[in-house]
Structures are given as structure tokens and as C-alpha cells.
Amino acid sequence: MRTRFLFFGLLALPLQAQRTSVLFIGNSYTYVNDLPNTFRQLALSLGDTVDIAMSAPGGFSFSQHAAYAPTLDAIASQPWDYVVLQEQSQMPAFPNPATTLFYAAQLVDLIEANDECTWPVFYMTWGRENGDADNCIGWPPVCTYAGMQALLRERYLQMGVDNDAYVSPVGAAWKRVRETQPGIGLYNGDGSHPSLAGTYLAACVFYSTLFRESTVGASYTASLPTSIAATLQGIASSIVLDSAATWNLDVPNGTDATITGSSQDGYAVSFHHPGQGTHLWTCSDGQSSTDAEPTFTLPGPGVYTFTHAYADPCGNSDTVSWSMEVLPVGLGEDPQVARPLLTAAGPGLLELAGGTRGAELALMDLQGRTLRTHRLSGERDRLPCPAGLYLWTMRTPTGAHWAGKVWVP
């Protein structure tokens, strides 16, 4: 953060400077020209001290990072202020971004499991100089820079919204430079990776994204001519600061009291929430608990309302309530009837195999609120379903019932 001063007479005393820590997770778009260190030196020239680290093997994707020990170790190494996430340069522009979106969410979960107060930041990259020749034949929208850039913008913004994360709009600033300052070469010779000017532009965008301040006037120019550095500073600052809401920068670092798991054993119902802060759970029968994973022993069958109030370590709070039907003990799964299998048959599509004709399937959100019901027409049914994680129950006309979870990409 910027150093502040208290003035006593003619003496200016600096307040104690605060350090900002940033972990960059990406690939060659991050390590070429050493973007993290360029950002650090730019910030230092503006009076801000930044501690940086990087995990960026060449060509790595989100799915690879999610299973890569050095990346996982870097995330867990300390409570970061920000963790920057950069996907493989082409994948967000593919026809179906399900894999990118899934692993983006998984990485954010890992980051927040390490420290709830860490802000994830998605690094919006840029379209290739003349489009993506490798994928053009099979996917015409990426045949041009403009088409590829539009898809990258759309998908990175989606990742930001889906994960309550910031988006650092490097690709949007890149587009503005191409349109208004075509003489500034942002690409190196391969038409993909950044030149020194491209990396400096990215560093300026990151500074304005994380500090919410302009880079105009920064003395550090990364050896670029002063006039070019000044132009890039101005464009980066205006792109970020004139459209903060577009990049999700107006979203407070909030918290979510939504449960992430539940289980039932007879009349004993347990809930799970990963929060590292304080919890208050209440049940409509008068029970309460402050445990992170409470168990309520209920007096019998019926519909109960539960409330979870959660305050995270960052000073944010949230409260959710939901109702849950508890069935009489003994009406559980029928060992004489095979358990049905509910799986994702593809993006936005569920498939139920082994069900009983006439059985009723109910899909619920993680608070137990019913989103839709479906009566089975045969032993194998398919039905559209938005992407997400759902709870489900199924009950046959004879009273047998099952429950579980299903992820839809």
C-alpha cells in the first residue's frame, strides 16, 4: 500500500509502511520478461513494497497447476494478499471452456482454504497477433485477433464473477494499445508472447488493479523510452480505473455461509463449512452450536429449519437459512432395489441410470432448497441442468429413497 505521512510542523513522519504479497500462477505469459519482478519494481517506484513469488512452468494450464506440487506448496506457503491466476493462453477461447472454469474454481477453493482473506485475481490475457492458427480450422471465431480477444475477455470475466474474484484486464488494455498506438509493438517475434513493452503494460494494469491507483508518473520504465512507458501507463490506468465494476473490482471481499456438505445418520444431522472464522448454527427445535462441523440430534421426523451465521477472519459476515425434511427411521434405502446412478452426461446435462419408472428426482442447491423435480419415464433419463454442484434425492412409488451429490460441468 502507498506510504502515508503525518505532518507535525515542518516535520513529515511516514506511517509504518505495509507490504503487499502477491503470488503469480501461470506459464510463459507470466515468466517471459519476468512480469512479477517488473510489477514489483513498478510498485516500488510508486512507493509500494511488494513481496512476490511465481509458479509458472511453460505451457501450464489450470488443470496442471491444480495437481502440481510446487504450485500447491506455493499457495500454502503463507497467507497471501493476492494470488494471480493465468490460464494457458488458448484454452479460455476454446468452444467449450468447461475444463478451464472447473479448475479455475478448484484453484480458488485451494487459495481460500489456505487463507480466506486472500483475493484471487484472474489475469486476462490477449489474443494472438494474427489469431490462433492452430485452432482456426476447427473453431473459426479464433481465426482473427479480434475474435480470439473477445472470447478471452468473455471467459475471464465469467471466471471473475463465478468466483467472486478480481479480473486484471491486461487483454483489454492490450486491445486499446493496438487500436490507438499501433506503433508500440506488444508482441515478440512469435506473435504470441509479450515483448518488453507488453510485459510493462501488463505490470501497469496489475498495479492499478491491485492498488486502485494510477501508474502515470512512475519513474520505473523497464528500460523503455520514457514516452512509450508514459503512454502505456496512461492506457493501463484508464482501462482499469474508468471501468472498475466491469472487472469485478467493486465487489467487496465478502464471505459465504453456505454449507459445503451434510450427512444424516438416523435422526442425527451433521453439516460442514470450511470457514476459519466463527460460526453460529441454530435449529428450529431450539438447538444451537458454535462448532465448525456441528451435529444436531433431532427428536423425530419432520421439517426443520437451520440457520448458519458465519463471520470470517477478514471482518465479513453472512447468514443463510434452509429447510430440511427428516424422514422416519426405517424408510431409508431399500436393499432389494438397486441404487440409481446420477451423473453428468456432458456440460449442462444430467443422466440418470437404473432408476424406477415413476420415481421422483429432486435437485437442490447446497442449502437444501429444491430447484426442480423430475418424474422418471424409464430406466435411463436425461435432463438439462445448469453447471454447478447439487444435492439430489430420489423416492420411488414404493417408498424407497436415495440421496447424493452431483457436479454438472
Describe the secondary-structure layout.
Blueprint: E1 5-8, E2 11-14, E3 19-25, H1 28-31, H2 35-45, E4 49-55, H3 62-65, H4 69-76, E5 82-85, H5 98-114, E6 119-123, H6 145-162, E7 166-168, H7 170-180, H8 196-211, H9 226-241, E8 261-265, E9 268-272, E10 278-283, E11 288-289, E12 295-297, E13 302-311, E14 317-326, E15 341-346, E16 349-353, E17 360-364, E18 370-375, E19 380-384, E20 388-395, E21 401-408
Parallel strand pairs: 3-4, 3-5, 5-6, 6-7
Antiparallel strand pairs: 1-2, 8-9, 9-12, 10-11, 10-13, 13-14, 15-16, 16-19, 17-18, 17-20, 20-21
List its traits.
five-stranded parallel beta sheet; Immunoglobulin-like; Rossmann fold; disordered N terminus; 3 domains; 29% strand; four-stranded antiparallel beta sheet; alpha+beta
Account of the 3D structure:
With 409 residues, the protein is of the alpha+beta class. The protein folds into three domains: 16-241, 3-Layer(aba) Sandwich (Rossmann fold), CATH 3.40.50.1110; 261-326, Immunoglobulins (Immunoglobulin-like); 341-408, Sandwich (Immunoglobulin-like), CATH 2.60.40. The chain is 26% helix and 29% strand. It has nine helices and 21 strands. The strands form six sheets. The chain has a five-stranded parallel beta sheet with strand order 4-3-5-6-7, with helices on both faces. A four-stranded antiparallel beta sheet has the order 11-10-13-14, with no helix packed on it. The protein starts with a strand and ends with a strand.
